[in-house]
From TrEMBL:
<feature type="transmembrane region" description="Helical">
    <location>
        <begin position="94"/>
        <end position="115"/>
    </location>
</feature>
<dbReference type="InterPro" id="IPR035940">
    <property type="entry name" value="CAP_sf"/>
</dbReference>
<keyword id="KW-1133">Transmembrane helix</keyword>
<keyword id="KW-0472">Membrane</keyword>
<dbReference type="InterPro" id="IPR014044">
    <property type="entry name" value="CAP_dom"/>
</dbReference>
<dbReference type="Pfam" id="PF00188">
    <property type="entry name" value="CAP"/>
</dbReference>
<dbReference type="InterPro" id="IPR018244">
    <property type="entry name" value="Allrgn_V5/Tpx1_CS"/>
</dbReference>
<dbReference type="GO" id="GO:0016020">
    <property type="term" value="C:membrane"/>
</dbReference>
<feature type="domain" description="SCP">
    <location>
        <begin position="133"/>
        <end position="286"/>
    </location>
</feature>
<comment type="similarity">
    <text>Belongs to the CRISP family.</text>
</comment>
<dbReference type="InterPro" id="IPR002413">
    <property type="entry name" value="V5_allergen-like"/>
</dbReference>
<dbReference type="InterPro" id="IPR001283">
    <property type="entry name" value="CRISP-related"/>
</dbReference>
<dbReference type="GO" id="GO:0005576">
    <property type="term" value="C:extracellular region"/>
</dbReference>
<keyword id="KW-0812">Transmembrane</keyword>
<dbReference type="InterPro" id="IPR034121">
    <property type="entry name" value="SCP_GLIPR-1-like"/>
</dbReference>
<protein>
    <recommendedName>
        <fullName>SCP domain-containing protein</fullName>
    </recommendedName>
</protein>
Length: 362
């Protein structure tokens, strides 16, 4: 686990839907709905800036302004929906109601950000584990260092993304603890497919101190204290050896801002934790991270790319219907609230639609 903050540095162990104004847009929407989106998007942008840069009073004033606009929009759209229920198709009705749900959902998310203050707003804007750019950066940051192993590695596999490893990393990051996930010690409990899962953790404050690349690079720097020839370490090298473990070929990472600080690390309101989980786990006692030799000379029938053993079938992203047993659920952060709302939207949509339908018919 690597720690970093301003004062101290030490080491320790849905496709198919368009987007308008940052929200999901209805497959069919009229000019009025588009105008509603435009106005609401402007309010949200103002709120984002306020939450990040201003004082609490400004936050409240901006939120009040945003809510006023939102309620007005929802009222207008609700009247449209009532009329639509009796004159339009089911698809149009669902589309209009989806717009209302998006407005309500986003408002709830920003309320949660307001309650957390400026750091809560930044937490809301953190990259999600499903964002392609975040995934690309995490994978690339690992593979860059693995391809540059010194001495050269003969059997270094290319790493690729694993969604379940990322879920596990995110769930543990939400605990805001400066320690490793104890579930990883339980064979077969930390992933639906891998029996053993490895973990690296970076800690820092404020959030601006974090980038994916700087965190992974800090783990790589531990290699200066590691001697491969006799598998010895002058200081702490566990992050480096996991990073360079040749047979670890899947990675999943997550970053989280702990507005109340990180246990046994910092009380800073922008304490940041970045967790990466690996399958299969590295750091197996008595073994070295990789075999020394000409790059890719021990790849077998696999292809060599950037001095790494690659297998298209192995690198495919597999998704499992699995939720980590240590997930905190909807409490603890704006991101958690976001996940809960997104997971519940279908039920909310169905239930609320029929309530509105019943109201309109009577």
């Amino acid at each position: 686990m690597h720690r970093h903050d301003d004062d101290d540095d030490d080491d320790d162990d849905d496709g198919g839907r368009d987007v308008v104004g940052g929200f999901m847009a209805c497959p069919q929407h009229d000019a009025r709905a588009t105008h509603q989106y435009s106005l609401y998007s402007g309010c949200i942008n103002a709120l984002t800036h306020s939450l990040t840069h201003s004082h609490t009073l400004t936050h409240i004033n901006t939120l009040t302004h945003t809510l006023s606009h939102t309620l007005s929009h929802i009222n207008t759209l609700s009247h449209s929906l009532t009329h639509s229920l009796t004159h339009s198709s089911v698809r149009e009705n669902l589309s209009l109601f989806s717009l209302i749900m998006d407005l309500l959902t986003c408002t709830l998310l920003w309320i949660s950000a307001l309650l957390s203050g400026p750091s809560g707003a930044r937490a809301f804007m953190l990259p999600d584990i499903s964002e392609p750019e975040f995934i690309r950066r995490c994978v690339q940051a690992h593979n860059v260092h693995r391809s540059r192993a010194q001495p050269p590695a003969a059997n270094m596999r290319s790493m690729s993304w694993d969604d379940s490893l990322a879920r596990g990393a995110r769930s543990w990051a939400r605990h805001c603890r400066a320690s490793h996930n104890p579930v990883l010690k339980q064979e077969g409990k930390a992933h639906p497919a891998f029996r053993h899962v490895g973990e690296n953790i970076w800690l820092g404050a404020p959030y601006s101190a974090f980038t994916v690349e700087s965190a992974v690079n800090s783990w790589n720097k531990e290699g200066a204290d590691y001697t491969l020839a006799n598998n010895s370490c002058a200081r702490l090298c566990g992050h480096y050896t996991q990073l360079m473990w040749a047979t670890s070929y899947k990675v999943g990472c997550a970053v989280h801002v702990c507005s109340r600080g990180i246990e046994n690390f910092s009380k800073h309101p922008e304490s940041t934790i970045f967790v990466c989980n690996y399958g299969d786990a590295g750091n197996v006692f008595g073994f070295t991270p990789y075999i020394v030799g000409l790059a890719c000379s021990k790849c077998g029938m696999e292809k060599c790319r950037d001095k790494l053993c690659t297998d298209p079938n192995r690198d495919q992203v597999k998704r499992y219907d699995w939720v980590p047993g240590w997930d905190l659920g909807p409490s603890g952060s704006a991101q958690a609230i976001s996940d809960w709302l997104n997971g519940s939207k279908l039920q909310l949509l169905a239930g609320s639609f029929w309530l509105l339908y019943f109201y309109a018919m009577h």
